[in-house]
Amino acid sequence: SVLTSNGPRHLRQRKLLLPPFHGEAIARYQQMIAEAAEREIRSWPVGRPMALAPRMQAITLDVIMGGIFGIEGVPRPGTVEHALRMSIRELLRASTLPGAKLAELMNLGHTEPFGLTRLGLLVPDRCLYAIIAKRRRAEDLDERRDIMSLIMRSRTEEGEALSDQELRDELMTLVLAGHETTANQLAWTWERLVRTPEARERLCEAVRSQAADADEVIEATITEAMRVRPVIPMTGRRVAVPWRLGDYAIPADTAVGISILLLHHREDVYPEPLRFKPERWLGKAKPGTYEWLPFGGGTRRCLGAALTMAEQRVVLEAMARQLDVEATTS
Hints:
The structure is a single chain. This protein is mostly helical and 330 residues long. Helix content is 54%, strand content 5%. The strands form two sheets. A two-stranded antiparallel sheet has the order 1-4. Helix 3 runs antiparallel to helix 4. The longest helix is centred in the middle third of the chain and has 31 residues.
């Protein structure tokens, strides 16, 4: 998929995937995100401890299923869409088990999923290919605005479209990488908020009073949380030509690791870097291109960045408006 391809293939895939992620398209998903958040929040226990990450995953899985496939709410049991949703949840649960490391090791030396990984993908793959075939036959394909339909209609400058296998690769990447990372980021944001009472109180007060700067406070809270708790702590590149960084000369074909976490904690860029201070972003321009990298950068910057930010804004606002969340431990 676009996440793992390089060179001309990467650029081709990226161009085909861009249309569903521009600003106008993202705005259409706002109501769906709000409905998913409200539906999930209503089911939460009051006055009892709960693990927040799984709750965030439930919201973001509903959003990604709705945004990508146009499936509103929880799919009806017995449908292929419901089977896909359940198999994705099970696949993610299994990926956290100790045996998952063995599955990863079995893939070494193979360009395609092998062994346990291949077995784990059989059910979601079967569901996904069935949904692709069903959508290609749909009479309203040209009118649909979900991500899957928009990608299906995308063409390169040479008139090429994605094959079923390419479409499967991209959709699976969007589902797996798209909802889990956003869920974890929201959970980490609240972890910081419940342990920083003044930041939590400022956010809740701005939202509940519908203050003029409420949107700015929400944005600042998200930006700061992604600075101190980036879900992806590092990224890598391989230099194609000889390259120099300061005093270091690097030959071509050298792997370079970029620590997002360390960059976000540089004291010369962020005074008091270990403190969670959303106010550092109030009244300021957007973060610098080379100073804030939770979505990576350059031509490989995360395609779903705008959707992720929109999702975090809606969910954070809904939770701050309705809930008083406290940490169960200090």
